[in-house]
Write a structure and sequence with these properties.
By secondary structure, the chain is α+β, with helices and mostly antiparallel strands. The protein has 17 helices and 25 strands. The protein is globular, with a radius of gyration of 23 Å.
Length: 475
């Protein structure tokens, strides 16, 4: 039997936290459920009841892991949760977060979204000083840095430890004294703060999440993003904000807008759905073609396809239907069915495609294998022409900041010109959105600059010769 994986880039993780609500664990469960798209390997929740920490985590999806019995064991009004997709450290229960450790000042719980490019160097240094690691995740390096710090207070230790990190991190930390949220100075990964009505005497509860779609599910009010380089402390005294790191040019990941984030989320100051429609409009202006119908590769290509159709005045229709009950991986029992890996997830609507010139809009091409199979399926359904349009530039470089990326050699956009990629996927034409068009689509966000390393091979945090971060487990 063969294990089939999606030919898409995958986000590493999601974090979610609650402070000051009697249903903290249940709310965290719902938050993680809303953020399941950011990680499907494993999940965990740690709660604190004022005297004891309670831990429940495992391998699998959120709704499979957290039964009513497990949730009832997560006592307290504060909780932190995490969805994992491994890009550093490998898979397995030992790497499922949040990670929990006891040290000189008490208990520390950490949930991390991102990837540290100097984790290997730091780990070797810490082990030389006698540190014993319980996992292979780069997140554990953060715990040891804090534990080894000579800072007098917890906050001093956190700042001291984080100043040694290079890479991307959106972090939640839970201690006996409160909840802490922090974003790396470049702001590579998103993190937002919300407020939730609570019956507790000290006022409303606070929630923190990787994406605002998690707030919508629990009816929390979005307050604002955690700023790049900002450290927020939430406790019974309220919410305190600190900016302890030297300023740098912000570089939030533009691929959050292109693909990763849910379209109903507010990320980096703007609704993702609106950005993706604008990407499609820009694509239609740059890459017009005579055709009869515009279709999307669902689900991530739908907003851009709608934007393309609106700008080109070519009607949009549903030509591909996705099976939403198929996970990111599945077992292919035999090789009897051609293109099994795509057909089990997507099916064509022959009545839409037959005898028509079709524009197919997708958000990206990674290896090209899935696009090739989709084009062939559309031709088999009777399409007379198939024109592929991609609402982002060619992906030419791997990501070191928390995205599951193949090596540069495996990325078809880095090794072949567009003409050859078009021939490989057997389309009548292929055009990508330019980097200029992509940046125009996000130009009115709150961020004047973005990380576009996967499209430009230019990194906001350059990789030093001695640094060798693990790329993802993409297969």
């Amino acid at each position: 039997m063969t294990l089939i994986r999606s030919d898409k880039l995958q986000e590493e993780c999601a974090v979610f936290g609650v402070y000051g609500h009697p249903e903290a664990a249940n709310l965290t469960y719902l938050g993680l459920y809303a953020l399941q798209h950011r990680g499907q390997e494993g999940s965990g929740i740690v709660s604190y009841d004022g005297a004891q920490f309670h831990v429940e985590k495992g391998i699998g999806l959120v709704n499979e892991l957290f039964t009513q019995d497990r949730l009832q064991r997560l006592l307290g009004q504060t909780a932190v949760g995490h969805n994992r997709y491994s890009t550093a450290g490998g898979s397995g229960l030992k790497n499922v977060q949040p990670l929990v450790a006891d040290y000189a000042l008490g208990t520390l719980v950490v949930a991390h979204n991102g990837n540290l490019i100097n984790a290997g160097l730091l780990r070797a240094e810490l082990e030389a000083y006698g540190a014993i690691f319980q996992s292979t995740a780069d997140t554990e390096v953060i715990i040891h840095l804090i534990a080894h710090s000579q800072g007098k207070t917890f906050l001093d230790r956190v700042v001291d430890g984080l100043q040694r990190l290079r890479g991307a991190y959106s972090l939640l930390m839970l201690t006996e004294h409160g909840l802490l949220a922090v974003r790396d100075p470049y702001g590579l990964r998103p993190l937002s703060v919300g407020r939730l009505k609570s019956s507790r005497p000290n006022g409303d509860a606070w929630v923190v999440a990787s994406e605002t779609c998690a707030f919508d599910l629990i009816e929390a009010e979005f307050v604002r993003d955690v700023k790049p380089g900002e450290l927020i402390v939430i406790n019974d005294k309220g919410v305190s904000s600190y900016s302890p790191f030297p300023p740098v040019t912000h570089a939030p990941c533009i691929f959050e807008h292109v693909y990763f984030a849910r379209p109903d989320s507010q990320v980096f100051g703007r609704n993702v759905y609106g950005i993706r429609r604008q990407l499609g409009r820009e694509l239609a202006r740059e890459a017009p073609v005579d055709a009869d119908v515009v279709i999307a590769v669902p689900d991530s290509g739908v907003p851009a396809a709608l934007g393309y159709a609106a700008e080109s005045k070519i009607p949009y229709e549903t030509g591909l239907v996705r099976n939403h009950y198929v996970g990111r991986t599945f077992i292919q029992p035999q090789q009897l069915i051609r293109h099994f890996g795509v057909k089990v997830k997507l099916n064509v609507v022959r009545e839409v495609l037959g005898g028509r010139r079709v524009i197919v809009v997708d958000d990206s091409i990674v290896r090209g294998t899935t696009s090739r199979k989709i084009v062939k399926m559309i031709r088999q359904a009777g399409a007379t022409e198939v024109h592929m349009r991609i609402s982002s530039p060619p992906i030419i470089a791997p990501c070191y900041y928390g995205i599951d990326t193949p090596t540069k050699e495996e990325l078809i956009g880095s090794s072949r010109p567009v003409r050859e990629i078009c021939d490989y996927i057997t389309a009548d034409s292929l055009q990508y959105l330019s980097q200029e068009g992509m940046l125009r689509a996000v130009a009115d966000t709150q961020n004047p600059t973005f990380c576009t390393a996967c499209f430009s091979d230019s990194y906001p945090i350059p990789l030093l010769p001695e640094e060798s971060p693990q790329l993802g487990l993409f297969e």
